Amino acid sequence: MGDRIAELRLRRGMTQESLAERARLSVDVIRKLEQGRRKTARLSSINAMARALDTEPSYLVGQPSTFEVPHSGDDSQPSVLALRQAVSPIGDLLGGEPDPEEPSGIEELQASLVSTEAVRREGRIGEIGVLLPPLIRDARAAAHAFTGQEAAAAHSVLAVAYQVAATTLTALGKEDAAFTAMERSVAAIRHSDDPNLETLAASTLSWVLTKQGRLADAERVALTRAEQIEPGFRSPPADLALWGILLLRAATAAVRQDKHGEVTRLLNMATGAAEAMGRDLNVYATPFGPTNAGVAKVNFLVEMESSEEALRTARGISDLESLPPTWRARFHIDRAQACTDLGRDRAAETALLQAEADAPEWMRYHSTSRRLVSELRERAPHRDSSVLGLADRLGLIR
């Protein structure tokens, strides 16, 4: 990270002092990162430096830019190019391409989407890269070929598939391509038969914008939609869940802008919705309820550098098994961050190994995981093989 910061700073003709001033950070933070004496920084600091240097946060943290899986030479390998081609087919610019004579049926498309979402929850990024391109092509063909309710159902599948593409491309640091996928999703939603897909799109777009470093835009998108669908506390659990998900998206963008008061307000509202639900619920492959609200609180406390409180809160969270593997892994990574901040390296390693047990492939693409493992590896005794082995499995090069 330090090398990338220094390179961009010099290209911009900035001194360490001017970068620190523009990013509203201590010059000591900039200096230590560039000198390699510090390997990591808070997400709020990374976003601030990215804004000051006019780049994406993913570039600064060195996020993997392609699928991190071994290629065996057959045709069933994930491909960023294939995913780009599915999201942005050249035929749209050349007047269209002929669709298959017999497009896939609606039930087949819906089953394929359910399988893809299950893979996404488990964090098997490479498998998503294999499944998504043909699913998008098949759903597009069905949407063109069918009429009436079948066409609307095909557009619903297509809209969600584009959103899965957006999250996958974002995980690969392809935020601009992810935004294109979101534009395609919104266009498909206009012809779909599911009124909740617009809310789902706002949630996904807010996350993509957060990853782009467009934090104010991310917060605005989530809050605007949350205001439009605000339920009563006697509303059905699914309505409360959709609203709560948007509030947590907005809070995620707010915490990375150091808007701690706003984070607390949004979290309190989301927690109230979760308590009104009384149980955890998966809505469009996204969990929400008392457990996820608690996990989100831990994340926000870590971001606000309240590490002791984060760990106390984490100990009080039960029913973690109700969450998808990637959500559990993220929770353990937040615990690891808190332990690292408090100098408890052994506990941090244990938490990271728990995260790896839940979602090993996903961790290879998760910037905070990579940063924490890099930092712990630098401090680890040579005889400590656990963190060194984890670094190797994440593909981290010394």
Automatic annotation (TrEMBL):
Entries under CDD domains matching the protein: HTH_XRE
SUPFAM superfamilies found in the cross-reference section: lambda repressor-like DNA-binding domains (SSF47413), TPR-like (SSF48452)
Pfam families tied to this protein: HTH_31
InterPro entries associated with the record: Cro/C1-type_HTH, Lambda_DNA-bd_dom_sf, TPR-like_helical_dom_sf
Location of the HTH cro/C1-type domain: 5-60
Gene3D superfamilies: lambda repressor-like DNA-binding domains, Tetratricopeptide repeat domain
Name recorded for this polypeptide: Helix-turn-helix domain-containing protein
